[in-house]
Amino acid sequence: MNEYLKNHLARIHDSLYLSLITIDQALSKEQATIELAHELSRLLTQMDRGSRLKQDLKETEAEAYRQVEEGVTHD
Length: 75
Description:
Elements: H1 3-29, H2 34-48, H3 52-70
Helix pairs in contact: 1-2, 1-3
C-alpha cells in the first residue's frame, strides 16, 4: 500500500472514528442527547456539501482499484 492510500485511509478513519464514538455513547445511554443530534447534523451536512470525507472515499476507492489492476496489492 502506498503513502497516498495510507494517508487517505487515515483521514477517513479519523473522521469516522469521531462520529462513531458519539453514536456509541448515545447507544449506551439509550437516550438521545443534544450532542448526538449535533453530530448527526454535522455528518449530514458533511455529506450534502461534498465533504472532504466523501472526496477521500472516492479517491481511496479509485487508488485501491488502480493498485489491484496493476498487481500492487496481493492477497
